[in-house]
Design a protein that fits this description.
The chain has 313 residues and is α+β, with helices and mostly antiparallel strands. The protein has 8 helices and 18 strands. Helix 3 crosses helix 4 and helix 4 packs antiparallel against helix 5.
Length: 313
């Protein structure tokens, strides 16, 4: 069973959801896994940002370690004690019911408003931003090929590389889960150039990274981000092939004259999003070349302005 927290962009939940108790957002969305075998429970880290610990000892990535009753387990900074299932009915107390946990989180994340704004409702900021998702292609295969120690070292190098380029191109890291990043940018052109730089840098590490980008209105609250634009960017990334930077038509149109070229990847259905969306793969062009060069548009595209196409009948 997977252990982590809710993905606000897609609403996806792990099997064991720590969202309500993770008030400091230290648990990765895909943090760890627990497996129940004949000889008992086993736990492993799956490449989390802040590590998984049993009795103070950090677990190596992708290596199962046995769990025993009374073990102190930490997912980043969320600390728990492992109990055998048979002990649970007598151990549960009313103070740890779900509603109480939600109330405690609400008090910590959404403090009371100052007196002069008493009675006003706290609303997230709405900002126009370019959202970027990245993911290492075939990461599980590479981890098996390299072994735990070499894979962890390579993963750390990848994370360091991504963060260098995010800083260089003005990106803001929102979250990282395992081998993927979620970041936002004020400039769509900067987001694309960052994705291209990450791709080239990852190639130098012997990796292939795929990226998906979309520009739209996002909901910003503290260090988290949400809204349909984030959901769309995640779906765009899921359509990318290894080594591809895939963008929505919105992003392409916003970077006209930037010196970037695009290859039309067709109108694609995005899970959970109405209609079909035209997607483009980014191609770097020489500075003397015509920017925003794409394959010829179809008659359907010419007839229907905007990005979203009606579903085919």
């Amino acid at each position: 069973m997977s252990i982590g927290r809710e993905d606000p962009s897609t609403g996806a939940l792990p099997d064991i959801d720590l969202t309500q108790v993770d008030v400091k957002r230290v648990v990765s969305r895909r943090h760890a896994e627990v497996s129940y075998r004949d000889n008992g429970a086993e736990l492993r880290d799956v490449g989390s940002t802040n590590g998984t610990y049993i009795n103070g000892t950090q677990l190596p990535v992708l290596v199962f370690r046995p769990l025993n009753a009374g073990d102190r387990v930490s997912f980043g900074g969320v600390n728990m004690t492992y109990r055998d299932q048979a002990e649970w009915p007598d151990e549960i107390t009313p103070e740890w019911d779900r509603q109480t946990l939600m109330s405690r989180q609400s008090e910590k994340v959404f403090p009371a408003a100052p007196e002069h704004t008493s009675g006003s409702k706290l609303e997230p900021d709405r900002v126009l931003a370019t959202v970027m998702f990245t993911d290492i292609a075939q990461s599980t295969v590479r981890a098996v090929e390299l072994g735990d120690r070499q894979w962890l070292e390579l993963l750390h190098s990848h994370h360091a590389l991504v963060r260098v380029y995010l800083k260089q191109f003005g990106g803001r890291e929102i979250d990282t889960a395992g081998d993927g990043f979620l970041a936002v940018f004020a400039s769509p052109a900067s987001a694309i150039r960052c994705a291209l730089a990450i791709r080239e840098g990852a190639n130098g590490l012997g990796m292939q990274v795929r990226s998906g980008l979309h520009t739209g209105e996002c909901l910003m609250l503290g260090n988290d981000i949400g809204g349909i634009a984030v959901h769309i960017a995640a779906r765009v990334e899921s359509k990318a092939i290894p080594d591809e930077v895939l963008v929505s038509a919105t992003v392409k149109e916003l970077v006209a004259g930037s010196g970037l070229g695009f290859r039309d990847r067709g109108a694609r259905a995005l899970k959970g999003v109405p209609g079909k969306w035209r997607l483009y793969a980014v191609e770097s062009l020489p500075e003397t070349a015509d920017a925003n060069v794409t394959a010829p548009m179809s008659a359907a595209e010419t007839a229907v302005p905007g990005e979203m196409l009606e579903p085919e009948v």
